[in-house]
Amino acid sequence: MERVAGRSGKSFVDFIGEAVRSRNKRLILDAVTSFYVFRTDTNQVLARGVMGYDAAREKANQIRKQQGLKWDQVSFKSEKKKSMSWSAPAAGGRLDVARNYNPSKRGRFRGYYDKDGNFHDLD
Questions:
Q1: Where exactly are the structural domains of the chain?
Q2: pLDDT tens digits for 39-56?
Q3: pTM of the prediction?
């Protein structure tokens, strides 16, 4: 086994195996990620919920041809997942937001009450 320079204790085979695993992980993430297609000049969303990188690329190309747009006018990005900290949990809690703006937090205090009446801070 040939050792790779700069790697402590890893053989060339280990290094290649690690690279293949990370590439496969990226391919899997690209396949299950939801994308949206938009116009770059107006930021108008043209399609949402397109699953997979290749499907998003094909959908963007299809929309570009249908609407007679140039290549640089249509693009796509992965949709961001909503964070649980920005909304009340799915358990049915009521989200409360403070009336006053807090400049040190650059926002308002947020929290929710659970079904038992306990308050949980989301900050």
A1: 12-78, 84-121
A2: 999 989 999 988 888 889
A3: 0.48
